[in-house]
Amino acid sequence: xxxxxxxxxxxxxxxxxxxxxxxxxxxxxxxxxxxxxxxxxxxxxxxxxxxxxxxxxxxxxxxxxxxxxxxxxxxxxxxxxxxxxxxxxxxxxxxxxxxxxxxxxxxxxxxxxxxxxxxxxxxxxxxxxxxxxxxxxxxxxxxxxxxxxxxxxxxxxxxxxxxxxxxxxxxxxxxxxxxxxxxxxxxxxxxxxxxxxxxx
Length: 200
Fold this sequence. Notes:
Layout: H1 3-17, E1 21-22, H2 23-30, H3 34-50, E2 55-60, E3 63-68, H4 73-79, E4 85-87, H5 90-102, E5 105-106, H6 107-114, H7 119-127, E6 131-136, E7 144-148, H8 150-156, H9 175-182, E8 194-196
Helix pairs in contact: 2-3, 5-7
């Protein structure tokens, strides 16, 4: 198959699949090395941008998903019934920022930075698929380690964690100096700080 025919097939797959498609999975479908598939997928994403298509292909953690062009959001919202949104609370943003910058991190370490228990906030963020368990620490009691998910990258518009805004000293991350002062995650697109929720 030529690159163009592979791109055509990938467009169909991305449209039908809906969820992020891992480059590794796509490579297996076409019996290609993962590196070659990554190149083709990124080239396809560039094709969409160059022709100012109404669709885009976004990448997060070497997975690719078909989505709409943000420039057309106003027209889409006029047609579609508005989705009720619930903004992440300040507490959720605080915990999310600690996990994002210090991962893998234990609950005790998160509580230490915030100075308050984070049990309920962690549970909420896990339900929203923004953080997940990454294993267990080798420390006493082998506490659970938490890290961000691929959905975290997609929600805040990052391709990888390397795109997080830089902090001067992550090792001394504190709530007063860094999280509230910089409002770290709000440096992403403000609209992405709201997550759709459905009525029960």
